[in-house]
Amino acid sequence: MDQSLLNSLRVVALPTKTNFRGIKLREVALFKGEYGWAEFSPFLEYKDAECAPWLACAIEAATQPRPKLFRSTINVNGTIPAINDEKEISQIVDLFPGVKSFKIKVGDDTDLDLARINRVRSLRPDSAIRVDVNGAWTVEQAVSFLKLAGELEYIEQPCASIEELRELKKRIDTKIAGDEVLRKATDPFALDLSGAVDILMLKVQPLGGIKRTHDLIDHHQLPVVVSSALESAIGIDYGLVLAGSIENLGYGCGLATGSLLAKDVADIPIIKGQMKISSPTPNFDGLDVSMERFEWWKNRIMRTAELL
Fold first, then answer.
1. 249 and 300 within one domain
2. Which InterPro entries match (predicted)?
3. Of the residues 32, 100, 105, 169, which is catalytic?
4. Contact present, 11 and 27 (Cβ < 8 Å)
5. Would you call 203 a catalytic residue per the annotation?
6. What are phi and psi of 60, to 5 degrees?
7. Which listed residue (203, 211, 263, 298) is catalytic?
8. What's the pTM value of the predicted model, to 2 decimals?
């Protein structure tokens, strides 16, 4: 890894507006190269080996020219965390003006999950609903839930394994999107997703960057949705670049999660359900972490770089 990238390193802590999968403060590392600012932000619990594709993506973003774009504005979906207070759900829905679909986190409690879905439907009756299970269900639990949930655009990672997804797909009509099954695989090119997954969920950092993600798209030949990993505006913008570089993009993308942050290094607004590629310049005012946390991230990057 080029020393000049490390020399530009900044690490920030971004508070969230709500508890998002246990996260109330999102730490991200940013560095600058010839082609702009880049983000490295694997979650804190990830081991170095799992961080390697995230760093490969950040280095690509900083040092490589942008790909050919087919669009500069991207349709996005709203994201609803696993919250249950009706007023809070309403406030979160309002953060996503004009979106035509909402992704709702589910999987912990069926009654609360269904109430959350129904609340969003009542607030945005014209919006499609997709749910994200993060692999929490058995096949039987997924089948039972889908009988109660009403029409869904798709269900994201309902079960953990490819074998379970394949069994589930035989029993349901709802489309299945694969997330963890792809990005946590030792070799995502070796996966046989036939009869298991209808849609690929693509997150540019954990998949190793735009070039590698395009290789995966070409390999698996499935429809795609580009999504985020609760990144800062720098990481989100690179996700927007990925989405803009995909010729056939039939679904709204999960790239509006910056709306769930109370503070960010830049603002990429949602306008009529769309976000625009903007190559933002970060504003670090009041967001830098302590020197101890800075050194933790710097050491993490140096260790991870040895694995590339």
1. no
2. Enolase-like_C_sf, Enolase_C-like, Mandelate_racemase_C
3. 105
4. yes
5. yes
6. -60, -45
7. 203
8. 0.97
